[in-house]
Amino acid sequence: MIDPAFEDEAGGAVAPPDPWDPLVRITHWLVAAAVLVNGLIDEPGGITHVWIGWGVLAVLATRLAWGFIGPAEARFSSFPPSPRAALAHLRDLRQGKPKEHRSHNPAGTMMVYALWASLAIVVVTGLVMTEAKSPVTIAQEKIAVAAGNWSMLAAASERDEDDELKDVAEEVHGAFANLLLILAAFHVGGVVVESRALRRNLVRPMLYGKRKR
Length: 213
Known about the structure:
This protein has 8 helices and no strands. With 213 residues, it is mainly α. The longest helix has 35 residues, at 164-198. Mean pLDDT is 83; it is low at 1-17.
């Protein structure tokens, strides 16, 4: 059965409207860049790494708010997670009969929530590891230690003593950072498969906001 929102006046199936507004596109690519840089390029624990982490926190908070107040296609109510619907979509995809969806398809929806959840865990554990210090504060402390400020070293030693929470946070942080890279690879693969099945470039609307009809 065709979704009424995807029918023309004659009752025929049409492509859904272009769903990706500028904020969705910008936050998507900012997160993608952050995951690649912090996961594969940047030095873990460095100032740049921390700056990017705080940036991701801001992007996540913005996207969360947009999921409630943004356009219909960007709202969480437009793509509720449903494992059963995701399996049904994958079955349709395997049979070469994927259905159109106004927002994320059910399988893509599950991936989106998995990516967001993993990213949130990485950010929270990063805050625990750095005691939620700003990158500026961390940079100042590094400079002080490099200059031989022993009082700073002593204070850091006292804070780290018997701090099991940080050790756990570090383990979880690393595990979910690796999981993010794996999920991102599956996400890219899913976009390629879906694009071929629908005979449409799904990357284009995430870049320019308009689908090629």
